[in-house]
Amino acid sequence: MNYLLDTLLYAGAFIGLLFVLVVIHECGHYFVARFFGVHCPRFSFGMGPVIYKKVDKHGTEFALSAFPLGGYVSMITQKMFEIEPELKKEFTEEQLKKTFDTKPKLQRAAIMFAGPLANFILAILIFSFIFSSTPDPKSIIVIDSVDDMSTFNQGDQIISIDNVNVYERKDISLELLSKAGMTGQIAIDVYQVNLDQKKTITLDVDNFLTDSKQQENPVSALGISIKMRSLPIIGSIMPGGAAEKAGLMVNDKIISINNSGIFYASEISPALNGLNTNFVDIEVLRGNQTNIIPVELNLVQNTDGIQSRLLGIQFGLKRSFFASFIKGSKETYNLSVKTLQFIGKMLTGNMGTENLSGPIGIAKMAGDTAQAGILPFLYLMALLSISLGVLNLLPIPALDGGQLTLLGVEAIRGSPLPDKVENFVYATGTVMIIFLMVFAVFNDVARF
Questions:
Q1: By CB distance 3.0 to 4.6 Å, which of 13, 101, 244, 275 could disulfide with 366?
Q2: What are the pLDDT digits (tens) for 397-408?
Q3: Which residue has the higher pLDDT, 297 or 433?
């Protein structure tokens, strides 16, 4: 029974994921096509036999099809009428004037670009929702352990790689992966907490991260392991608690407790419970000024009779939706650039193609994240939406990027390519996509 439920969950998560991503993509094409006056005879939600359909006042048939595996938008063209003149009978005189290929090149380019753009917008909105729904932990990357030959020191904070700031585990992994195959120098800025100073460590690398096993954990190539530690910045204050009574405020950064330095949020509770008094002096950084605030701690006892001293604060700042939107936009941009870089590194052989996932791999990820919760599932949806947007912009003829490339060629030549050449180009692009899909499925089978 559990196996059946798991199978249904994984299948449902995969179908739902694919349906949303493709339909959003097609919505981009549809709305911009309509804006520029191109007639769209059908917008199909799903594929296969039609279950339900409705025609709007513009003559577009909105169809719900049997298999919810994506969808498509059709647009009328002069070329389709040249091939099948009988099709003209299905449209009004007004609709026949609204063909895609008679529109100016910039309008056709906008229609093609709108699909990937819709995927990027979806990713921004999903990231914005996730960031606004979760507190900002104000955390930093800390070196947890080092190898014997490492030039790093345990406890140092990693700030940036080649002047690109890193804030989370994925940031440092993505930045290192973007340098796969590199020969040269990598500059890593660290903050040495004990010495209160910044230091730049320069690493000489040769064919960096070309081993696929290293690419699974790129940080290990530096000879270190890392962990995330939250900074002691107050995110919220419990009403009636010791912190509120003493006058501590949200955004205060705790620097010391009774003159003992505090660097991370996890150090506060042990420091308080190691005292033999309920009265403490807490030094905080508020704006650009430091203040020493006397606090009378609350003493509580749990069911086991163990007493604890509580300050009455929590860490993690709530983001505004505007701040979340800005962060979501930056995240989408950065991941789009990294996706393009990784595709390039796969083509040059600097990154293993075994990282490429097909439908089986995506279905597994969809099911795993669905089991983990709505936010992980949405995060995966945003990642795949970015991937779909980037992949569709590649100059492969059967994709949006290929059509944009052909429009560029048409602009340079002053006329479209001959039909035979164009058909050959599209056939080649289709073969490339089929080969890519087969290869991805092979990877999935080999992996799982």
A1: 13
A2: 888 998 899 889
A3: 297
